[in-house]
Specification:
Radius of gyration: 20 Å
Structural class: mainly alpha
CATH topology: Na+/H+ antiporter like fold
Strand content: under 5%
Distance between the termini: 30 Å
CATH architecture: Up-down Bundle
Largest sheet: none
Order of helices and strands: HHHHHHHHHHHHHHHH
CATH class: Mainly Alpha
Shape: globular
Helix content: over 70%
């Protein structure tokens, strides 16, 4: 899909598709929620509890460490202003749920490892939501921003639980499989919209609603026929959402900028890999100390599964106009393409061959 988008863009025959906006509203509000909702529904709460320290550490501390390390490396190697380098680090540090969920569906990774990578991908957006405006304004008030992060996170959790509890009650009143399946769309988008309207993280509310739906509502308030129908429906939805995101990524890539800034893009990609190593290994060491042990081969997979994609590009395109916006956008597009094509393919080959 990325390749098709690139070809259509290069030949300028994309037609009406080229007019679709690739911004935070489209990606974070339309494409990402179905993917993280479906992934959360597949996550068993018992498995999540066994890796929750690792997941939360990667989603919070991992994003912060990665943003700082990648920014410093870029600043030292390329001479980019520190503020610009850190802005880029913030944009590309969160792993992309669109990419990670898509890749993990194609390989038979252990359930605990899949849970770590998927839940990290859809929880770390709350961290980026707080860091993004800080990096733009270059202001840093630790207590204020820590409080804002807590408000975003806790508020999203409460909204997700509230919407899910109401949905469970209503599901008991509906017995038609297609009607129940359609209702889950309202639960998914409703939790996102309700949370955002309250000024908290919709991208936290959605996976909480998905976890509740998959671990409680589907078990207690749905028939076997409804569960089967709903599972197949959400597989189709996530396939279409993923395909749309990748096609749009290819369509919006600017060949001219990618070629002009190719040395910076390669350096930025290397900086991101270095930052991922510096963020993952200390966190995994710490979580082993506190009791969440895992094979060393899993750590290597977690490092290399730090895929970047549509979410980072949407954040880059949402930046206010500045002399460095084109550079950041080009580096983000380039890193996303390198991440989604060679890195993701190598990851799949490695996961299939290594004894996990």
């Amino acid at each position: 899909m990325i390749a098709i988008g690139l070809v259509l863009s290069f030949l300028r025959i994309a037609g009406g598709l080229s007019g679709i906006a690739f911004d935070r509203t489209v990606i974070l509000g339309l494409v990402v929620p179905p993917l993280i909702f479906e992934a959360a529904m597949r996550t068993r709460i018992e498995t999540f509890r066994s890796v929750q320290k690792t997941v939360l550490s990667l989603a919070i501390l991992g994003v912060v460490i990665s943003a700082i390390v990648s920014g410093l490396v870029l600043n030292l190697v390329t001479g980019l202003p520190l503020a610009v380098a850190l802005m880029f680090g913030v944009i590309v540090s969160p792993t992309d749920p669109v990419s990670v969920v898509h890749v993990l569906k194609k390989v038979r990774a252990p359930e605990r490892l899949t849970t770590i990578l998927e839940t990290e991908a859809y929880f770390n957006d709350a961290t980026s939501v707080v860091l993004y405006p800080i990096a733009i304004s270059l202001s840093f008030s630790p207590l204020q921003n820590l409080g804002m992060f807590g408000y975003n996170l806790l508020g999203g959790v409460l909204v997700g639980l509230a919407v899910s509890a109401a949905a469970e009650f209503l599901h008991r009143l509906i017995t038609e499989p297609l009607a129940e399946t359609s209702f889950t769309i309202a639960v998914m988008y409703g939790s996102y919209v309700f949370a955002e309207s309250l000024g908290v993280s919709g991208l936290i509310a959605v996976p909480i609603a998905g976890l509740y739906m998959g671990n409680r509502t589907m078990r207690t308030a749905m028939s076997e026929e409804t569960r089967t129908t709903m599972t197949k429906f959400w597989e189709v939805v996530t396939f279409m959402a993923t395909s749309f995101a990748f096609l749009l990524l290819g369509l919006k890539a600017d060949f001219r900028l990618l070629i002009v800034y190719s040395p910076l893009i390669i350096t930025a990609f290397a900086a991101i890999l270095v930052a991922r190593i510096f963020s993952v290994y200390p966190i995994i060491w710490f979580t082993r100390v506190v009791g969440e042990r895992m094979p060393s081969s899993w750590t290597r997979v977690i490092v290399f599964a730090g895929l970047r994609g549509a979410v980072s590009v949407a954040l880059a395109l949402s930046l206010p106009e500045s002399p460095f916006k084109d550079i950041i956008v080009a580096m983000t597009f380039g890193v996303a393409l390198l991440s989604l094509i060679p890195q993701a393919e190598i990851l799949q080959v490695y996961v299939k061959r290594v004894k996990l």
